[in-house]
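To the wet lab folks,

You asked to see what we're planning to order before we commit. Fair enough. Below is the target structure as tokens, and below that is the sequence we designed to fit it. If anything looks off to you, flag it before the synthesis order goes out.
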């Protein structure tokens, strides 16, 4: 939603209780609230931040502007979880209340050091002429959730980057802390800077250099770069804004992509022997995905189900955005798989054989099997006429199409109303489909290809129809 700058940057303290109550009441009117995904209580949620393990629990923060469905003065809201499925929101942890983050506590990462959580994030600072000074800054969070911000700027805008310099990710490689930061150069191309903690002191960083990851620079900015190690292989996840479509076919306003590498040369610095750039998600919205390696070596990711510069049907209810399920990464036959963590099955409240339904709660999981060389069309959120979210699975030609043109309230149609991907032709396929009122996450072949999307059904769109072909499997009611 387009709101004037004065509204979006109005100091938090100036919002009255009446105004806040009105916003809360408006959110409550929405027919589309999710039941087992994280959504903002009010206002806008965007990037996942500070995904980490600390104090015996997983920590997950998110970017938020709490006063409406717009990108305003950002803060970090904190959630924690033991099973990566059930989250408890504890409240706001980083307010834009310091001279180093005066115009927003922007995205970043976190890592447990000693008995504290080190938070590494971007302070968005603007001067009276609205000129931006992006500052990479830090804070400690203790076990009681108390925050202590550093006064010192950890990394300043380098001479070869524009004001678009943000989203530090701290990671450990062989016992040494590094950080990567997304950037734009003066030719308006995206790039990534690599830094190193001097003597592993996270309050003291030096530049190693521009990270060579075989990038063409066809994008104008790289947001939210993340490096994780999956079965020992470095995987770079990033959001290249404005990427040339000749380089990668994508329909969303901005893609979220990755490359798998064989090695990480920390001296050069370079990620070595990489795959081409690959779309992380084939759905209508997955962005700013954040990953980290757990203490036991797993690579976990979570995505923002939303996109920058897009208006959503929920905007009229003063909120926007959701977090995806937590997905675990693995590599099989050189391919990256993303699949919800094991504990997701704990949401299954009842199980039955898959069949058509006229009325569901729109909170369920389907586990489906498609025979080789068949064509099936399935409609989720189907009304009496069979209009809804159409999923066509053609295992003969190896093609999947997700079409939301008849699923409820339309939006972002300038970017098309269907999405597709390929599967191996002539093979059987499986799909695990997680439906949550206005969110759909579809995992083909246990995470080989993923579609993450919003859909805003009408009140009548509660059914499941098979309009052609044949499919078997299970239906699980999900309860949070
Ligand atoms: C990505 C992003 C980040 C930035 C944050 C601000 O969606 O633009 O680059 O830190 O959102 O909320």
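Sequence we intend to order:
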């Amino acid at each position: 939603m387009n709101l004037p700058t004065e509204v979006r940057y109005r100091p938090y303290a100036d919002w009255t209780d009446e105004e806040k109550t009105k916003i809360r009441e408006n959110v409550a009117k929405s027919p589309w609230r999710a039941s087992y995904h994280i959504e903002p209580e009010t206002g806008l949620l965007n990037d996942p931040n500070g995904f980490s393990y600390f104090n015996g629990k997983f920590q997950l923060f998110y970017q938020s502007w709490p006063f409406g469905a717009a990108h305003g003065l950002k803060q970090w809201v904190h959630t924690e979880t033991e099973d990566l499925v059930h989250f408890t929101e504890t409240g706001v942890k980083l307010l834009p209340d310091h001279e180093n983050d005066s115009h927003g506590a922007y995205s970043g990462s976190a890592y447990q050091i000693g008995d504290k959580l080190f938070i590494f994030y971007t302070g968005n600072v603007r001067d009276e002429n609205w000129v931006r000074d992006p500052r990479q800054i830090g804070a400690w969070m203790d076990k009681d959730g108390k925050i202590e911000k550093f006064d010192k700027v950890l990394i300043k805008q380098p001479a070869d980057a524009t004001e678009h310099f943000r989203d530090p990710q701290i990671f450990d490689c062989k016992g040494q802390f590094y950080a990567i930061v997304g950037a734009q150069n003066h030719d308006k191309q995206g790039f990534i800077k690599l830094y190193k903690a001097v003597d592993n002191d996270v309050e003291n960083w030096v530049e190693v250099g521009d990270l060579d990851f075989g990038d063409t620079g066809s994008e104008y900015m790289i947001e939210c770069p993340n490096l994780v190690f999956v079965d020992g292989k470095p995987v770079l996840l990033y959001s290249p804004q404005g990427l040339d479509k000749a380089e990668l076919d994508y329909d969303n306003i901005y893609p979220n992509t990755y490359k798998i590498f064989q090695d990480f040369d920390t001296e050069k610095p370079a990620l070595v022997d990489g795959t081409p750039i690959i779309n992380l998600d084939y759905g209508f919205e997955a962005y700013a995905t954040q990953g980290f390696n757990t203490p036991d070596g797993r690579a976990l990711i979570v995505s923002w189900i939303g996109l920058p510069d897009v208006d959503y049907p929920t905007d009229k209810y003063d909120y926007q955005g959701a977090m995806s399920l937590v997905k675990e990464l693995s590599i099989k036959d050189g391919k990256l798989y993303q699949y919800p963590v094991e504990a997701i099955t704990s949401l299954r409240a009842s199980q039955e054989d898959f069949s058509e339904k006229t009325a569901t709660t729109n909170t369920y999981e389907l586990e489906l099997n498609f025979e080789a060389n068949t064509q099936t069309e399935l409609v989720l959120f189907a009304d009496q006429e069979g209009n809804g979210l159409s999923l066509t699975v053609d295992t003969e030609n190896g093609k999947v199409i997700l079409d939301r043109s008849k699923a409820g309230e339309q939006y972002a149609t300038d970017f098309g109303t269907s999405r597709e991907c390929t599967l191996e032709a002539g093979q059987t396929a499986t799909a695990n489909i997680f439906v949550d009122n206005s969110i759909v996450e579809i995992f083909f072949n246990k995470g080989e290809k993923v579609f993450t999307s919003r859909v805003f059904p009408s009140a009548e769109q509660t059914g499941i129809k098979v309009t052609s072909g044949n499919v078997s499997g299970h239906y699980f009611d999900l309860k949070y």
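Structural context that might help your review: Residues 46-47, 63, 74, 106-107, 122, 166-167, 223-224, 288, 308 surround beta-D-fructofuranose (CB under 6 Å). The mean pLDDT is 98.

Thanks,
Computational group
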